[in-house]
Amino acid sequence: MSTSSVPSSHFDALDAPHRDLSQARTWFFLLHAVLMIVTFLGIFAFGILFGRFGRTFLPRSWFPYHRAIQITGVASMAIAAILGIIAVQIAGAKHFALLHQKLGLAVIILVLLQAAGGQIGHVIRQRHGHRAQNAFHVALGLTIFGLAAYNVQLGLDLWGWKPAPVWKTVLGVWSILLAVVYVGGLTLVPAQRQQELDQAMGGEREPLLR
């Protein structure tokens, strides 16, 4: 999203003044940006990869770690969202007027649904052995990651500092690298399925709520 697509009234409120480090709102914007980047391209990404590889290498213990990582991400996301809302309020601009803000809100809602669905899906699988909900959980998680990575790019466009293009490139490459690593992890699915089959044939079951 280029700065030319930002409404002038909104741009006046968020442009040059918010890049003044002597103003409180600048720090709120900056902290919001940094924390959201760390949350989605760091914490959540690590949780996704841990879930993908943990299913194969830690078949009996991956879930509680995956859940703990993602819960940490939810808490971090909530703090970052509050910082963003405060920054916009201090700037005197409209809330959820830009694509970045609207998409951010949508991503937050999807993350909360994903968190609840992940736990419910785990219980369903342990009690009834159904896998369909797990496939949906994975697909939604990857969708959220893609939307969040794109929204990071939109946010950097809004920030407008000269280093922004550099960070856009760095974070864009990082996002692609994470996606490549995840896709590479899909090659482990056959081994994971075989492990699960062996456990089932041996009468092994994981604890219901680990």
Radius of gyration: 20 Å
| Termini separation | 43 Å
Count of helices? 7
Succession of helices and strands: HHHHHHH
Major β-sheet annotation = none
Counted beta strands: 0
- From the spread of the alpha carbons, the general shape counts as elongated
* Average pLDDT rating: 85
Share of helical residues: over 70%
Regions with little confidence, pLDDT below 50 for 5+ residues: 1-13, 206-210
Q: Strand content of the residues, in percent?
A: under 5%
What structural class do helix, strand and pairing data support? Answer: mainly alpha
Membrane topology: Multi-pass membrane protein
Keywords: Electron transport, Heme, Iron, Membrane, Metal-binding, Transmembrane, Transmembrane helix, Transport
GO molecular function: heme binding; metal ion binding; transmembrane monodehydroascorbate reductase activity
Subcellular location: Membrane
Commentary on this structure:
The structure is a single chain. The N and C termini lie far apart (43 Å). The model is unreliable at 1-13 and 206-210 (pLDDT under 50). It contains seven helices and no strands. Helix content is 78%, strand content 0%. It has helices at residues 8-14, 24-57, 62-91, 99-128, 132-159, 164-185, 189-201. The protein has 210 residues and is mostly helical. It is elongated and about 65 Å long. α2 (24-57) packs antiparallel against α5. Its cofactor is heme b. This is Cytochrome b561 domain-containing protein. It is found in: Membrane. It is a multi-pass membrane protein. Residues 1-192 form the Cytochrome b561 domain.
